[in-house]
């Protein structure tokens, strides 16, 4: 199925919306019923797989035991045959014994000196079988052939005994063989994973146009003759402030009354602890003007919240909305008729603490204010925001889920490096989706950090290493930084200052282990450079970055 989106529509949000509002993703919880001791019994899929695997393992054990017995019997008879001809015991058949029983007894007696070389006693059936072989002249080649057969049988017996001693590993290899032989074209198309909880409000498309009548105090989707306010979804809440100092949060409706003289209206984000409202108002009873800074986190929908002292003639002189707690400078102009000596002065919101919305605020002046004008933008007064990457669902979040990425200011970027040898710079938008299985590294972007990457060059069958800095600034665009070629992929990557790579190659007693001091021996080049050869490629190679507690002073390549 292919879905074409109109320009400006986020593909990530669209995918989330499909998961939320359609059957694009369905969770299936099967109940498995099997017959145990002639009775139906419900078991989990994991338990059923465990039972089936154990049964297969037991069957493989029986097969190996049968094979071992057959090989031992074959070894026994081949050894008898060799002795029978090599020691010329077959000549007992040429002697003139009175009866057949005496012939068999003579052959049995002739084998006595060689019984110690056998693994079981010689039976009557063994001797009869030997006598049935045609008697002919025996050459050295015949003996050599029997010796080769015995050696081959001893090797097979040793292997079967090893398989029995390592039955679990043998069973795993058996299943892997089945997968290799019959698995092509039958790959699994389902997956076992936790489903992400998607909030409907976060993925609902903003396709509803909202209008506002500031003077009369109405907001709604049907007020098309009034001023257009914004585009939102049917699931959104709208927050609004009036000149009287009343705040109200309502659902998107055809038409709803907020209160006369609306000052500000926008989509309300619940639990938003960063958006800060700066306000100056005059108390209707005392005519004293106050300034306050506050957040709006939790509310009751359709309830009126009075942000002032509550007097009837209260009036808001100034209101600003600051996404990151910015604290601006405003110019306060007093009434010309007032008795104040200084009738104009600057007021700094940065000197005010952020308190609850119910606080009265701090006094600005006791004289009547004519107007308050914006003079100068301020810096964000809130600290950096903490960001995490959820490595289960591939999401950025502020909830402490997954890998901590650090403290972020508004303009900070995120660096993501993928297993296919590409990197991407992205912003802090929480609606983005990433595939955790394709990501090797995700962290806060620092343009001065050097990236150290080890990748596989399949054409030359070798590991290459390169060090470089990110030189691009384009967001949401992947850049390929390893050598292009079929089968090439990124093995490992780090941004530590002096990386030390622990490298292991080979298996068992043949393992070769060493440390590469890449930080001091590989130069920093451009991000398009191929890099230099590190070592020959092998599937048995494993590597990881060593955490260093002290500065390494040696300059040798290997430890």
How is this structure best described in words?
The structure is a single chain. The chain folds into four domains: 1-27 and 195-203, no CATH class; 45-182, Orthogonal Bundle (Topoisomerase, domain 3), CATH 1.10.268; 204-376, Neuraminidase; 446-545. Helices cover 22% and strands 31% of the residues. It is elongated, with a radius of gyration of 41 Å. The model is unreliable at 551-559 (pLDDT under 50). Helix 2 packs antiparallel against helix 5. By secondary structure, the protein is α+β, with helices and mostly antiparallel strands. The chain has eight helices and 33 strands. The strands form nine sheets. Strands 10, 11, 13, 16 and 17 form a five-stranded mixed beta sheet that branches. Strands 25, 26, 28, 31 and 32 form a five-stranded mixed beta sheet that branches.
How is this structure best summarized?
With 559 residues, this protein is α+β, with helices and mostly antiparallel strands. Helices cover 22% and strands 31% of the residues.
